[in-house]
Each structure stands twice: as structure tokens, then as C-alpha cells.
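Ticket reopened. Same input as before:
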Amino acid sequence: MLEYIKGFFELVKGLGITGKHLTKHAVTLQYPEEKDVMPERSRGVVVLLSDKEDGSLNCTSCLLCMKACPTAAIIIDAPRGEDKKKVLKKFELDFSLCCYCGLCEEACNFSALKLTGKYEYSTGNKDDLIWDVHKLQDVGRDVDYVDKRKKKVKKVAPKPTVSEATDEIKPTQSADKIETKPVEIKTDKIKTDKIETPQDKDEKPKTEGEA
Amino acid sequence: MSNLRTEEFDINMGPHHPSTHGVCRLLLTMDGEKVVKVVPYIGYLHRAIEKICENRTYAMCIPILDRFEYVTAMSCNYVFSLAAERLSGIEVPERAEYLRVIMLELNRIASHLIFFGTTAMDIGALTPFLYALREREYIMDLFEMTCGQRLTYNYIRVGGVSKDIPNEFTPKCRETVATISDKVEEYKRLLNGNPIWKMRTIGVGKLDADLALAYGVSGPILRASGVDYDLRRDDPYSIYDRFDYNIPIYQNGDVYDRYMIRLDEIQESCKIVAQALDQIEDGPIRAKVSPNFKPAAGETYTRIENSRGEMGVYLVSDGTKKPFRVKARGGSYPHLQLLPEIATNCMIADLVAIFASFDVILPEVDR
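Engineering reply: fixed in the latest deploy. New output:
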């Protein structure tokens, strides 16, 4: 009998603790209406950064981020143009593969890309998760960043500039890009579970990028 | 009535049963409500993490190994980095060691809070789950503030840590640790004396020390059975010898002791974090390690004390920039193996309690 009375008092004690919380405010947020402030270092959507002055992309097509990516989510195609300079023809990021590890941002020496605190990009279509260079640049327009580049790099004018991206030419350009999407190549990569490591071939990609 | 015949029957518990903590299928042979036989079927979460690591450089392996045991991803980061450092003899700066200890212990607290919440929920008390996850959120905020992610951190690297802590970290961390230490007292008041909780846990799923040792059990479950064994003290790594903390030991080895020991460990970890925050000094946070880091050829088995027992990495290097073999050892596998041994001939509700008290996490079992 004594045990039952003791047990009853313990139950009341427990109820007292839960009862105390009745008077306190909720710790949760009503998400779509209220939003949490993401920390500065938050690793969400990857964006391409643009130059603060002329609005061109910071990317020099050095391919370091592509090589650092553990899931091969980044695909860059940058053939050499007539003047032997690399031209950024394609920069695609597949968010269905990206694991948000931030190694690409660490590998980049030119502040070309950054993981931001943005997170609302869910879609019903998996193909929409493959973002091309224009989308990556548009999303990253308002992102603040510390420029890691040296001053002398500034004279290089990378190809896809803001004017091109925002002009009426944009739809045709992106349409071209969609046609040339090498989806087959990507799936092959996943199947064989190998990551291309072009580091073996060219040991100093940094200097190439600066050229 | 005496010639009524009953038959045993098989049922599947899982793979998507809420109390299997992931995707584990238990094939139960039942005699009424009594469990006659338990056969765990694993492999639903197999991602070939070990094989994937063989095709990646050392830096790339760390985000992959984050997924090995995602409740304490800091430990996964740490054990792999430690193995690579031991192979190549890299000296880690002092401040980095402190940061690592702080993060590891915070992650241990977060993991035990998950244990506390889910075990109580499996046994039938919903409130502790909400409280535990509320406190865990503070720790997740600390991690997010430091490395940007809440679950898969990629923070501890070969040679140190990736980023230094922000300025607001230290005061917030002190506050969090003090809050959690207080809250654990509240949890104890909430559940320890509760007669329903006591009936469901005391004397249920008894595991004696001999059986535990025979099955390779480690961590809190082993210590709840009365074996005084903690790798932080018995196979020293990092700077754990500089802190003053106790290793709680319980003798009965039942569900109640396994629950109590984890609550005590939360408080001990809070002590370690508070001391580390006092002792930490300014300095570099990472030794110079090239992105194409190549350790010397050789092999090592490195183990640390994780919240679920011994976590180890057997790393074979052939001197190239990719590991030749990575074998990840998690504490949960032997614990799941032990389930048929001690859950046979118990009631199905007790099976849930025993399984929850083992704190098995399936990604660690399946890899």
C-alpha cells in the first residue's frame, strides 16, 4: 500500500514538471510564416559569386572545385579559346548529388563560389535540381563575401557577364546549354563509383587559372 | 479446455517500425505475446561507405564518413583524421585538440539526449522526447554556428579542424552546458521515481558482464553491466588526461541502468566541456596539410570512445593519396547481435524496451 502512495506522489511530481512548462513560451517557430535566421557560416545552397564592381563571374575555370567535390556534383566545361585562355562554357551543379560538405568553397582560391544560408529550393522535378551557370549566378547576386583574389587577377574578364545573363539573349543561351547536358556521362560516373582525378595530369591548375 | 492447441506464429517488426530506430527488420516468432525467437535482418541502409572511401582522397573521405554514424558525426570525422595522423605522424596544434574535445563531448551529449528521448518514447513516455530534442537543439545551434551544418559536420580534418570557433561560441557554449546539466537533473526527477517507468525497466533485459565481454560489447552498455572500461582513459587519445571527470559504472545491466548511465555521462561530458573552455588558449587550429595529402604506407587500427561504444577505423595506406582500405567499426553491430541472446523469452513490449536501451543506430550497423 505504501508503495502505491509513494508511486502516486512520484507521478504527481512528474506532472508538476510538465505543468511548469505550460506557463513557458513555445520554443518552436511557425515555419513558413516565421523563419529562423541562418548563421553566417551556414552551409546551404551553393552559389556562384560575381565581381562587386563589374558584375562578372569570379570563376576562372581552374577546375579545383570540380576536383575537390567528393560526389562529383560539379561539372565544368571550359575549353581553351582562340587566345589560349579558358572560356567557361558550362558550369553545372547537381543539387541531388551535392552533400554540402563545403570542400569546393575551401578549394577555390578566387572566391568564385560559396555555400550560403539559403535553403528553400525544393522541387517536384529532379531535373530542376541541376542548376546552370546563370541560375547559380542569379541566386548568388545578393550574397556578401570576402574577396580572396589578388588584385592582379582583376584584368581577366571571364565570359558570362551580367549583361549577357540578364539580356534577352539569355533564354537562347540557356536553351543551348540544356541541349548539351551530358547526363549520360554523369550516370556512368555514379555507376562505376569513380571520381575523375585530373590532378594526376596537370599538377598546377592554379597557375593555369591565373594565366 | 485443456486440449486447446496454440501455435507459434512469425511476425515482422520493421523495417519501418518506429521503434527500430532506422531500418532494421526483426523477424519474431511469437507464442502469444511472448517472444520465442528473434532474428535481426540488417542491410537496408547499406551504402558501401568503406568502398566509396577507397575511391576518394583523404579529404573527401571525411564528408563520406560523416554518414557512417550520423548521430555523432564528429566522432566519425575524428577517428578517421586520427588514423591518418597516426600514419603520417602529423602533430596537431594545441587549440585544435581542445576544439576537438569540445565538439566530441558536445556531440556525445547530443547523442545521449536522443537516446533519452527515443527510449522514453518507445517505452511510452512522450514528454521526455520533446524535452530532450529541445535541449539538443542548443547543441545543434552551436555546431551550425561553428561549421555551418547541423548533422554532417565535416569539421574535424586531418591535421586539426576546419574553422575556428566564432566569438559568440564560448559564452553560448558555457550557458548551454550549464542548462543541460540542470535539465538532466530535471529529467531524473521526471522519470526515475515514476512507478510505470520503474516497472518497465528495472530487471528487464539483464546482461551480465561475461556475456557482454563475450559479444564484444563496449561503451555505456558494458559499463552498465559493471565492467569499468572506457577508451578515453584505457587507450588514451587526444587530451582527455587533462580533465577531471568520472566514469560512471552501474552493476545490474538492466534497461534502467543503461538509461541511468547515459544520463550520468551527459553530466560528466558537460564537466569536460566546461573545463576545456576554461583551459583553451589561442593558437593555430590546423597543421599544414596539403590537399593531396599522402600518408606513409602502413596500416593502423585507431579507436575512440563514442557514445555507442568503441568506434574504430582500420586504415591501410599504400602511400598514394587515396586510402587502400578503410574498415569502419561501429559499436552498434555487436549490440544488435546480442539482441536475440537477451530478448528471447521476454514479452514483446520488453523487446522494444531492450532494443531501445541498446541505442542501436542502423547506419552504423549497415555502413
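Chain A has eight helices and five strands. The interface with chain B takes residues 3, 6-7, 10-11, 13-14, 17-18, 27, 39-43, 68-70, 99-103, 106-107, 115, 193-195, 197, 199 of chain A (CB under 8 Å). Please confirm and we'll close it.
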